[in-house]
Amino acid sequence: MNYETFDHEADIGIRGFGGNIGEAFENAARAMYSVMVRIEAIKPLEQKEINLSAPDEELLLVEWLNALLSLSDIERMVFSRFEVRIEGTSLTARAWGERLDRIRHEPNVEVKGATYHMLKVGKSGDRYVAQCVVDV
Amino acid sequence: MDPKSLHKINDYLWEIPQHGEMKVPGRIFASEKLIQEMDEKVREQVTNVAMLPGIQIASIAMPDAHWGYGFPIGGVAAFDPDEGGIISMGGVGFDISCGVRTMKTGMSRDEVMPRLKTLVDQFFNRVPAGVGSEGLIKLSPGQIDEMLLGGAVWAIKKGFGLKEDLDYIEEQGRVSGAEPEHVSDTAKKRQYREMGTLGSGNHYLEVQVVSEVYDEPAALAMGLRKDDVVITVHCGSRGLGHQVGTDYLKSLATAAQRFNLPIKDRELASAPIESPEGKKYFGAMSAGINCALANRQIITHLVREIFTDIFPEGHIKMLYDISHNTCKVETHTIDGRKKRVYVHRKGATRAFGPGQIDLPQEYRHIGQPVLIGGTMGTSSYILVGTEEGMKTAFGSACHGAGRAMSRTQAKRTWQGRDVIRLLEAQGVMIRGHSYSGIAEEAPESYKDVSEVVESAHQAGLAKKVVRVKPIACVKG
Asked: B333 burial class (0-12, 13-18, 19+ CB within 10 angstroms)?
């Protein structure tokens, strides 16, 4: 598995791995949607674009996840496939998903926001990891 | 936390003496047992808050305190703008003005039981809840601003509820100081379709029965007797509040650096109250409070409609509405002087004592009702604020039980279906929008609410009036 969730007292941590930072961001997003819904059930039918920049890579991760949450809320969509390109501390991304289906996607819990808690972006062994705790 | 590492003031008050960069001491209101169970991080976070500029008297933690982002959950702190005081997003949290509203039904348990199943099914079907739910009304950009300025007052003007409901809401259903222009377009867009929705996680709509009366005169003033049925809703400011939190976490974290504030933790995201950043956050956060008040008002209207459809003989009357994630401007007596301060309550309830002008006439002699939510299967409590709490904790009390086990661990331990079966056997009907969500909210994954309430009572923060037990619960 290239993403996982981890234990945290009241909330939940999300973590993505990858061969580069972009991939780790893609998988961190998967980890976040796996908290909200059954991610395997999401069909990548519609594509959205996101462009962002932030002062550093870690803040960029929080921005990226929060941009997805806003988009999900406004468009009533959930996403499962991502393509992230990072240059410096700017991000260009595409996300694929569909309108939330409250039966098929088996919703679990809303994520209110990605936080700075346990926020880490960096290299761990031979792969990159991107993680933080999300408020549910 | 080791009680020996704290300075014991009395059985229910423990102090972290002022040291290092702390401007005031830290004070934790709790029994020895709760202190022992309390997370070591609470000490660290209470200490960090005590270092913030302009803090008054003490950095305070409630009996249900546990780790939070920046401030602990259960953290209370007041700041004076005239002493360079700050305002902190970490002192309010992501779910601005999340709160509890309790309504009376005018009916007893025996009268409600025969039609309880119909009632809870209708609540489940007609009150929008769960991930991605949409409200019955859709707001336009212009209407959003009116709602953010008007709170529950706006909702009533739109036909959601009765004018008399407003008397039983903090600040009569609308906080002044809301500035919709400082709420981002993204935040507003997130709210277009979310008015009158419950949300998910620990949010709920519950049918409860008064199971014990501790203070007969206070209960009488609230119009409560043993076996009365009440309805309680727990929810917040929805997508708009979450987005305001997200936006200002970022801007106040940057401001804290710019103003060179002594911040030990990025999530304390703060700015001086009188700075442009601080003023903007206060305006946006106040708008978030009004959003939560409007949201709970619309849900009240739905509850009233559904209840009287099924029980035409019933009459839904407000008991009270409290918010537990806020920053409010209040006047408190500090060192013998009346001061206007910015009181942050994060996972803490306002608990004004008797005589306060903000309270409705019939509660003014007993103090403000303090609504403490338990977990699905356990009790909730109604208390009243005290004179003593006004002096020791800026008129604040605890807010709930607090998690004892992580969500992941709860999901590993229980199956949603089993939790439902077990609770039904104990006489609590459960309807949920998500089985895994129910597993995460299993009663055993929370601390014992009774111990928390007992500590608040013994510490003099608020006095127990009644205990209510759930007979049906709709989870978001």
From this structure: exposed
